[in-house]
Design goal:
Shape: elongated
Radius of gyration: 19 Å
Strand order of the largest sheet: 8-7-6-9-10-11
Distance between the termini: 30 Å
Low-confidence stretches: 6-12
Helix content: 25-40%
Number of strands: 11
Strand content: 15-25%
């Protein structure tokens, strides 16, 4: 169902937020003037059309600018960690590029779940990881492979249960080595895609999951955005 949205100062280009201008005849829960955020396709400019199931209401306390920056990074982290990996309290998770957009969202979500978080970033961005609540021995550089040995030592040789990856090459191999007990390897990157069957054969008990948030589909996307907004309103997550 199409919606007309005017984003004001919040640009639309894949994601955005704005004020509803008009709704299709089958939309009964939104009206002109309502503020919404979500994912948009083939749209870039001050007006766009979006499907109702890709949208969620913007909480009253948010600006449109804050809402426009939320959908892709938070829904990607949410879909990966909750829907696909089904991360549980007490599990260990490695989040690469933890100071980036998806990484920042993923750390917040993992901590809210109750997981033990390990994260990499360039050394210049380590303060951001510390401020997020990551312990010093759970922080390492994303520029070299030292994270493998550091995190194995910090985990008592157990490694982690889940890896959220955006790196490539030997960094993928080092990350897979951190799943000695098996686990879930979430691949967000597009530059070093592995064969899931080969990964499973080389690393017993490891499930390799290549994903993109678009796979969640319209209904689930809207649900996730609504859940994310509720977590932000409750203080469990925060937007930048």
């Amino acid at each position: 169902v199409a919606l007309g949205v005017y984003p004001g100062e919040a640009s639309i280009g894949g994601e955005g937020a704005g004020v509803v201008l008009e709704t299709g005849s089958e939309v009964s829960d939104l009206s002109p003037g309502d503020r919404v955020m979500g994912l948009f396709f083939d749209a870039f400019g001050p007006q766009a059309k979006g499907e109702r199931d890709f949208l969620a209401r913007v909480p009253d306390s948010w600006s449109l600018e804050q809402a426009a920056a939320m959908p892709i990074v938070f829904s990607t982290a949410f879909y990966g960690l909750r829907d696909l990996a089904q991360l549980k309290a007490g599990e260990k998770v490695l989040i690469h590029a933890g100071a980036g957009g998806v990484g920042t969202a993923a750390i917040q979500l993992a901590l809210d779940i109750g997981a033990e978080v390990f994260a990499t970033a360039s050394p210049a961005k380590w303060d951001a990881l510390r401020e997020a609540g990551i312990e010093e021995d759970h922080i390492a550089s994303s520029r070299d492979l030292d994270f493998r040995d550091k995190f194995l030592e910090a985990s008592g040789g157990e490694g982690v249960d889940v890896v959220l990856n955006s790196l490539a090459g030997e960094f993928v191999d080092a990350s897979l080595a951190l799943l000695p007990r098996g686990g879930r390897f979430l691949e967000m990157g597009k530059t070093d895609i592995r064969d899931p069957q080969q990964v499973g054969a080389d690393h017993r008990g490891v499930t390799y999951l290549l994903f993109d948030v678009s796979e969640a589909g319209p209904g689930r996307t809207g649900e996730m955005l609504t859940e994310i907004a509720a977590l932000v309103e409750a203080g469990a997550l925060h937007h930048s």
